[in-house]
TrEMBL record:
Listed GO MF terms: ATP binding; ATP hydrolysis activity; transmembrane transporter activity
InterPro entries reported in the protein's UniProt record: AAA+_ATPase, ABC_transporter-like_ATP-bd, ABC_transporter-like_CS, ABC_transpr_LolD-like, MacB-like_ATP-bd, P-loop_NTPase
The protein's name in its UniProt record: Peptide ABC transporter ATP-binding protein
Domain of life: Archaea
Upper classification of the organism: Archaea, Thermoproteota, Thermoprotei, Sulfolobales, Sulfolobaceae
Swiss-Prot/TrEMBL keywords: ATP-binding, Nucleotide-binding, Transport
SUPFAM superfamilies from the UniProt entry: P-loop containing nucleoside triphosphate hydrolases (SSF52540)
One GO CC term, this protein: plasma membrane
Domain ABC transporter: 8-229
Length: 229
């Protein structure tokens, strides 16, 4: 089978009137379906930029991003959004939950954006919360009534509600204590193993790294080495 993600000669240059900053320098990368891949490197190495490119949140200066055999870089912004909503889920270190919505409403939000009828999206959101231990009982709570770990689990549920093939996570345990972080690691690992969700994750967390299939080291916008585990 072809890889679920391909980055081909991917480059990104940010320019202002006075400054030019090269964030990515001709990155080549392939990720197979069901892989759990860690992206590691120092601050400013290009990790988040690469995640944004692969997640179709930003466009490369040069090169291609191919998702499930589709050259996303040649698509209109509307088509990119459709591809992103259909195939990709996102988990951010800051959770990005909407404070005035309940847990259930936050989880079903991507389905609402996609135009899924109310009863269908509510049923699907409850199904996803039920798959994450201890979360369905919190469905009527607001984010500010939850711990950091619970908020991150809600964010993961929201990322999974559209049944994505690819989950992109940017430092998902960065704001969590050790014990809570370990629970999030366990949850992501189970998604990879049991549900065959492909996960690409930027992290500094050694517990995260040791649970991955591959570790991609990036520095100065280039892949330095790849370690199979």
């Amino acid at each position: 089978m072809p890889p679920i993600v391909q980055a081909i000669k991917l480059s990104k240059v940010y320019r202002t009137k006075k400054v030019e900053y090269v964030a990515l320098r001709g990155v080549d990368l392939e990720i197979q379906g069901g892989e759990f891949v860690a992206l590691v490197g120092p601050s400013g190495s290009g990790k988040t930029t690469l995640l944004d490119m692969i997640g179709l949140l930003d466009s490369p200066t040069a090169g291609k991003v191919i998702i499930n055999g589709i050259d996303a870089t040649s698509l209109s912004e509307r088509k990119k959004a459709e591809l992103r909503n259909k195939h990709i889920g996102f988990v951010f270190q800051s959770y990005n939950l909407i404070t005035y919505l309940s847990v259930l409403e936050n989880v079903e939000l991507p389905l609402a954006v996609a135009g899924i009828p109310f009863w269908k999206r509510r049923k699907r959101a409850e199904e996803v919360l039920a798959e994450i231990p201890g979360m369905l009982e919190l469905k009527d709570k607001k984010p500010n009534e939850l711990s950091g770990g619970q908020q991150q689990r809600v964010a993961i549920a929201r990322a999974l509600v559209n049944d994505p093939e690819l989950l992109i996570a940017d430092e998902p345990t960065a704001n969590l204590d050790t014990k809570t972080g370990e629970a999030v690691v366990k949850l992501l690992k189970s998604l990879s193993v049991e549900k065959k969700v492909t996960i690409l994750m930027a992290t500094h967390d050694p517990d995260m790294i040791k649970n991955c299939d591959r570790v991609i080291h990036i520095r100065d916008g280039m892949i330095e080495r790849v370690v199979e585990q």
